[in-house]
Amino acid sequence: MHMDNVRKLMELLKNYDINVWKHSIFVMKFSFEIMKKLDLHKKDVTNILIGSLLHDIGKLKICKEIINKPGKLDIDEWDEIKRHPTYGGSIINQYEINSEILPLILYHHERWDGKGYYGLAGKHIHFGARVIAIADSVEAMSSQRPYQNMKKTKEIFMELLNSRGSQFDPDLINQLFKIESNNQLIFSKNLVKEQGILEKLISVSRNFNSNIFYSEGY
User: Fold this and answer.
1) Would 150 disulfide with which of 119, 144, 162, 163, CB 3.0-4.6 Å?
2) pLDDT of the residue at 145
3) Could you tell me the CATH number of the domain that includes residue 166?
């Protein structure tokens, strides 16, 4: 894994749009919380953490006026936004990021029912992309946006449960709620420090120990 290139890309994203950068950090954090409840190989953990961190990297190629538009997007603007997974795939190829990350970038907006960006459905969607899709939605629902009020924890729980089998992998959602009845940590938005975030990511993926992530306020 070319971690130096991951650092370069995240620095580019931060300089381009700080809000997209923050969103990406939290999606990585939420992906980690989800994976704590699953029995995954360490290699899969690493790939999903990197994929979640870079899932929106394609927005580097979308003008900021569209990304930060406070009102409703028109058809052309929405079509451009929907290209960001494709843009992201081309970017990580240029930066020689592990090819196993590619389907996570490309398919994080796919839906279980096949109504996502590319039309993939069910288990044809890469598992890691299914995890990131949940984390991405949780982060969006727990954020205040110009077009959407921040949802309360119970509302987010209900949205996830109600979207089983339509937007989200039903088995994944069922596992999350079966294994852990109190999912508060998934929605924790404690201050994420910038310094050393990628080094922490490497440590987490190698050790898969939640204490590493939460030490020092991560």
Assistant:
1) 144
2) 67
3) 1.10.3210.10
